[in-house]
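Page 47, continued from p. 46.
Same chain as before, 329 aa.
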Amino acid sequence: MPTTEQLVETVTSLVEDAVTAPSMHNAQPWRFVHRAGTRSLALYGDPSRSLPAGDPDGRGLHLGCGAALFNLRVSAAQHGWGAATELLPDPRDPWHLADVVLQGPDPTEPDPAELYPAVRQRHTSRFPFSDERIPGEIVDGLRGAALLEGCRLIVPGTWHSEAVLDLVRDAELFESADAALREEIAAWTRTGKAGEGPATEGIPSYALGPRQYGVTAPARDFDAPRDLPGRAVAAFEERPQIALLGTLDDSPADWLRAGQAMERVLLQATLDGLSTSLMSQPLEWPELRSLTREPGSLTGFVHMVFRFGYGPRGVATPRRPVDEVLTVE
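Result:
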């Protein structure tokens, strides 16, 4: 049995890996609690880091926390531990999202430690990708990654893909007409101007990528007012390769499962040599989200749109120090 000090060191290391996960606007809406002397760790959502305009029901918050939970599982496996996970363990506290108990590895379960090298390599890329098509065996592997977490990854056909990209552009028009949403996005964008939030959170200007020439690619532009001087303009791929992550139901537990599947897919794609980005724009509007689903599909609710391809890897965005997100009691 490890000592209390050794357990705290291990848990700290796990959380350092967990928080490299993506979250909406890099809000990092998670906090962890470890009871000293035990092998347990609790994950909570942080309501102070919610996004009331863009994520009023908290689905995006759950996705980000689910992604952090999956990273924690991968890190635990790398450290030689299994991670027994219970979602939403306290019905009286909706912000108590998961409990994790470190235990011996389960030989009957797939070992996620093989994904560990991608934990620190995965970054969102808002740069142009080439038009080189992704081999079918890689796509099948990404589908399998989603299935391991109880979710489905749908690669849309031509008409469905074009329809989803049209919905992305529709969402951008909705966004441009919503002052509260534009203000919220600006509050999480870091351009170096006076009065902006901490440099340890949000989307920094160096991660914005170039402005798009044309409207083919669904990369979100966090510099919508176009007041960042010297930002390059580039043509993006003509046929973006996208995929949709979904579940049959749409409960908070489904959102957490989808967040874990999202991160497993992203880590697998990174190991496969793909660059990745996430598009949640049409999913932030109920009237558009329902239209992203392919009619007749077994995927009842879409939680994320991925963009995959070959091109520049994204750059690391800042993370809050572990002592801000981990409490040892």
